[in-house]
């Protein structure tokens, strides 16, 4: 596995290293030892699968506050999506900065999303599926979100989401008090 640092502190794009012969190829997409050697979280308690029937489906921007902040590893297993993260850790040098990457079934890249980051994606093709590992269990009382098109953050989405849940559309613009970012200090 190759770990490519993004411009956001602690966030990585993970590229599988293919090893092939006349039969095809083999690639490791998760390895506890390699994650630990790279200084990344290597214990995950949930694996989630998201199916999206239509292109333009937007999910996010979600995160969890302590005591259930989560690391995610997100991978597209069918179709294509554009995945965005926002650093919400107030003591981070990349606080309130965002980064996005295209994940496709063809490029097989994964996104390592650290604790204290909001995460969301928009599908670029119909019938897109994402598979993601989570280091903490879903905790409704710890869940927060920020509006996908919050002007204070300014994520430059490649496609405007045409399908957005009522919940995701209702997240407010960024407010440090409401969004609980003080609880993310030190992550």
Automatic annotation (TrEMBL):
Signal peptide: none annotated. It comes from the Bacteria. SUPFAM superfamilies: RmlC-like cupins. Pathway: Carbohydrate biosynthesis; dTDP-L-rhamnose biosynthesis. The keyword Isomerase applies. GO terms for cellular component: cytosol. The active site is at 62 (proton acceptor), 132 (proton donor). GO terms for molecular function: dTDP-4-dehydrorhamnose 3,5-epimerase activity. Pfam families: dTDP_sugar_isom (PF00908). It is an enzyme of class 5 (isomerase). Keywords: Isomerase. It catalyses: dTDP-4-dehydro-6-deoxy-alpha-D-glucose = dTDP-4-dehydro-beta-L-rhamnose. The keyword Transport does not apply. One of its GO terms (biological process) is polysaccharide biosynthetic process. The record marks 138 as: Participates in a stacking interaction with the thymidine ring of dTDP-4-oxo-6-deoxyglucose. Its EC number is 5.1.3.13. Belongs to the dTDP-4-dehydrorhamnose 3,5-epimerase family. Catalyzes the epimerization of the C3' and C5'positions of dTDP-6-deoxy-D-xylo-4-hexulose, forming dTDP-6-deoxy-L-lyxo-4-hexulose. NCBIfam families: rmlC. This is dTDP-4-dehydrorhamnose 3,5-epimerase. It comes from Pseudoxanthomonas spadix (strain BD-a59).
